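Case 332 in the screening queue. Each case pairs one protein sequence with one candidate compound; here the compound is alpha-L-arabinofuranose. For every case the pipeline is the same: read the inputs, emit a complex structure as tokens, and attach any notable structural observations.

Predict complex for case 332.
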Amino acid sequence: MLKRISALILAGVTALTMAGCSGGGDGDSSASGGSAGGGDDKIVMGFSQVGAESGWRTANTKSVQESAKEAGIDLKFSDAQQKQENQIKAIRSYIQQKVDVIAFSPVVESGWDTVLKEAQNAKIPVILTDRAVDSKDTSLYKTFLGSDFVEEGKKAGQWLVDEYKDSKDTVNIVELQGTTGSAPANDRKAGFSEIISADPKFKVIASQSGDFTRAKGKEVMEAFLKSNPKIDVLYAHNDDMGLGAIEAIEGAGKVPGKDIKIITVDAVHDGMQALADGKINYIVECSPLLGPQLMDLAKKVVKGEQVPPRVVTEETTFTQEQAKEALPNRKY
Ligand code: AHR
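Case 332 output:
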């Protein structure tokens, strides 16, 4: 009898100890939890990446993975292949695994409230990385780390205004938008439009999504060229679409950077090379190196410390001359 009572007490103590250790992703107490990480003291982060659609994304994934390693954070990484349903599945799986913190770069802005509520109910803090969501309830995430995409669009528009300041002629613009419904596509369009709409000589004669990929950028630009005999400027929401469009422009017997001026966003290596080669005229930088800041924020939110609700990435712009100077030291 005594033996049975001792066994029951032991089982009870073991269960309580395990419950205490699991942390369950509780933002207040799980700094040494790591229930999904196999029992050591590491913070466990579940990260849902958009995909591998662009040079920017590849550099961003590398930055997140390397920084997690350096920060001693156990990273569970999944690639959603640009599908929201895959991101929702990944987030639900991280909730089930009781990770300490979830970070993700939302492929589109809308439709996240339900899954974010599930994470909140499970007391797992969420960090938005790179892209925003349009949820009214901002308590569903701890912070949003990333660029100011509206500002990027404004910088692109301002270059155009300055470039054509002495001309009275109509400037026909075609626009390659990023993924439909994504924050960078919405905001880069809005910022650009705000600046150029002050002068009626700027006319956006065609605007379509190229899904942030080189292949789609080429395909859509080919269609633009067929249906629009006079295109003066291409504004592409990222380098990759701009690079695809350059192939289409050359295929149509025109000279990119001269016959058609090109503005892009990102400043990844291939884009910067095309800028230095004179095929692109201006690039607005969008930095993918978010990893180190993300890991710092993750450590803080897991400890229950206060973090700013918005952390904006510092960025610049590049002309052709500046690209030539910057290229040898460019990290991505
Ligand atoms: O969200 C950032 C954007 O996503 C980058 O500008 C683009 O290249 C990427 O695919």
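Case 332 observations:
- The two ends are 69 Å apart (CA to CA).
- The CA atoms of residues 23 and 40 lie 12 Å apart.
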